[in-house]
Specification:
mainly alpha; 13 helices; EmrE-like; Putative integral membrane protein; 299 residues; transmembrane helix; EamA_dom; cell membrane
């Protein structure tokens, strides 16, 4: 036990967070290769089935002795988690992953700005909105050519991410350790199962291997790395590092999927990353004005 702790402490906390970010976004890129074959529902179900099974074995949550409020909280948390994954994976069928992640990021950014109540943070959200307009190519693309479905799904994923953030903090207060997360994953799996189980044409080795890879890269590994990092890192610094997610998503899209973004899209992404760094840095300036659970990851 002590040996494992010392080995974990030997790795700088920022590197653990960056490792989690890279894992999540490359997991998303892997999911983008699976969505065309089995749909968003099937991809989400495979990810959640594997991730839930792993978490249940590792965490072994207690099922009894919880209040009605606790069950309502974890139920809502699980629904937000499932819908967040379902809408985000749906957006990957219509948008490059870098574009989808950047648009999705508006959800937690807007939530952070509202909760911080700082004028400068609202200005930053305005800059992020301009960035999203640029990255979605709204200004110079005919309306008929815009993937309005993809943009709408990415925005819906952002709204679910904001709900996930709020409910994550409440779940953490109702359940010890990772019990709440494991139980919420069960709810998310059950909620999305009807939408995805029938879209999987065959449970062959390739599909199962990709599903397992997505579960490990997008859920199990990043959650573990972030848990280790947050023991030694301020939540505000963690939030600022998460600002790199759109950029890492674009890199994963380039390396795994061959997706290239234009100059204006890169400018838009830079605006979103800068806005996120400014807003998440609010907690560092005055931690009493922003809850630490704003820095939970999603996607």
């Amino acid at each position: 036990m002590d040996t494992r702790r010392s080995r974990g402490d030997a790795i700088p906390a920022p590197l653990l967070v960056l490792g989690g970010i890279v894992s999540v976004q490359f997991g998303g890129a892997l999911a983008a290769t699976l969505v065309p074959a089995i749909g968003a529902g099937g991809s989400v179900v495979l990810r959640l089935l594997f991730a839930t099974a792993i978490l249940l074995v590792v965490v072994r949550p207690r099922w009894r002795g919880h209040s009605r409020t606790a069950w309502l909280t974890v139920g809502a948390f699980g629904l937000a988690l499932g819908l967040m994954n379902f809408t985000f994976y749906g957006s990957l069928a219509h948008l490059p992953i870098g574009v989808a992640v950047t648009i999705e990021f508006i959800g937690p950014l807007l939530l952070a700005a509202v909760l911080s109540r700082r004028l400068w943070d609202f200005v930053a959200v305005g800059g992020a909105a301009v960035g999203v307009v640029l990255i979605a190519e709204v200004l110079h693309t005919p309306l008929a050519d815009l993937s309005l479905v993809g943009i709408g799904l990415a925005l819906a994923a952002g709204a679910c991410w904001a709900a996930y953030i709020l409910l994550s903090g409440r779940t953490g207060r109702e359940f010890p350790h990772l019990d709440g997360l494991a139980l919420a994953m069960v709810v998310a799996t059950v909620a999305t199962l009807p939408f995805g189980i029938t879209s999987v044409p065959s449970w062959d080795g390739t599909i199962l291997a990709k599903g397992l890879g997505i579960a490990v890269l997008s859920s199990v590994l990043p959650y573990s790395l972030e848990l280790l990092a947050l023991r030694r890192m301020a939540a505000a610094v963690f939030g600022i590092l998460l600002s790199l997610e759109p950029a890492v998503a674009a890199l994963a899209g380039l390396l795994v999927l061959g997706q290239r973004l234009g100059p204006l899209q890169l400018v838009g992404m830079a605006l979103v990353v800068a806005a996120s760094a400014i807003i998440m840095g609010a907690a560092r300036r005055d931690p009493d004005e922003m809850p630490s659970d704003l820095t939970e990851t999603g996607g």
